């Protein structure tokens, strides 16, 4: 607890300042106070937590899962073949140069307001950090260690499983910590631009009604959801990569 005491103090001071500034401005449609946002979340809890939050989480989980499968598979392929790396790595980088907000309406045009248009946006947001980080993890393997295993007669499969994979695990979890908040953002953006459910859609609907607290309410829920997911990943990382704490 002492480790995070400074952060907790800063957060309390931030929200206290926000509360005071919002009360001073006294314009709820511009800057609602934290207390009003919490009140709005409570009033709309049925709609937010039973309808819109599950819709957003479904898009987040499916998009992130597909990104993990595709990203890890591509990282493995690039680490095993230099030709594949030269052919695909530039394409992976190019995917990040196209604005997501420009592609989202195109996906809606192709797939309508179905879940797949939103999942594709989430995949584009999360695919790059997973692929690049895991690939860098494979590349971080020390060459002398690999040569040592070769002299002992280890096969390529054994080198991959015993050396490269453990080396890439910390990078994989780092990629997840980056990708989880991005997946939540991607889901919200896709819902904002084209959806009939979800927290992003709800926030957009509240904006048309000039309901400032209603706009902020889904943002607060999404932020807490992302924080919880990152904490879960940290716990899993500490349990799986025990050897790092022992070094």
UniProtKB/TrEMBL annotation:
Give an example GO cellular component term for this record.
Answer: plasma membrane
Annotated ABC transmembrane type-1 domain residues: 53-237
Q: Which SUPFAM superfamilies match?
A: MetI-like
First and last residue of the signal peptide? none
Q: Which Gene3D superfamilies match?
A: MetI-like
Q: Where are the transmembrane segments?
A: 7-31, 51-76, 88-109, 115-135, 171-193, 213-236
The UniProt entry lists the main location of this chain as membrane
The biological processes this protein is annotated with in GO are:
transmembrane transport
Give the UniProt keywords, A-Z: Cell membrane, Membrane, Transmembrane, Transmembrane helix, Transport
Membrane topology classification: Multi-pass membrane protein
Source organism, top-level taxon:
Bacteria
Q: Where is this protein found?
A: Cell membrane
Q: Which CDD domains match?
A: TM_PBP2
Q: Please state which protein family the record places this protein in.
A: Belongs to the binding-protein-dependent transport system permease family.
Q: What is this protein called?
A: Putative aliphatic sulfonates transport permease protein SsuC
């Amino acid at each position: 607890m002492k480790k995070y005491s400074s952060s907790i103090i800063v957060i309390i001071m931030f929200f206290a300042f926000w509360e005071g500034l919002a009360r001073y401005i006294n314009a709820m449609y511009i800057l609602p106070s934290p207390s009003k946002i919490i009140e709005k979340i409570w009033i709309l809890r049925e709609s937010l937590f039973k309808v819109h939050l599950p819709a957003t989480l479904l898009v987040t989980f499916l998009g992130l899962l597909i990104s993990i499968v595709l990203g890890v598979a591509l990282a493995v392929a690039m680490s095993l073949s230099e030709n594949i790396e030269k052919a695909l790595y530039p394409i992976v980088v190019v995917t990040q140069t196209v604005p997501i907000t420009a592609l989202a309406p195109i996906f809606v045009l192709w797939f309508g307001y179905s879940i797949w248009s939103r999942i594709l946006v989430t995949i584009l947001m999360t695919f790059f950090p997973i692929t690049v980080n895991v690939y860098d993890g494979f590349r971080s393997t020390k060459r002398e260690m690999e040569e040592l295993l070769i002299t002992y007669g280890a096969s390529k499969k054994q080198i991959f499983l015993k050396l490269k994979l453990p080396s890439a695990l910390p990078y994989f979890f780092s990629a997840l910590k980056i990708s989880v908040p991005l997946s939540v953002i991607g889901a919200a953006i896709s819902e904002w631009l084209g959806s009939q459910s979800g927290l992003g859609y709800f926030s957009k609907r509240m904006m048309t009604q000039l309901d400032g607290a209603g706009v902020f309410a889904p943002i607060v829920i999404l932020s807490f959801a992302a924080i919880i997911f990152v904490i879960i990943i940290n716990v899993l990382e500490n349990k799986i990569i025990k050897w790092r704490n022992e070094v």
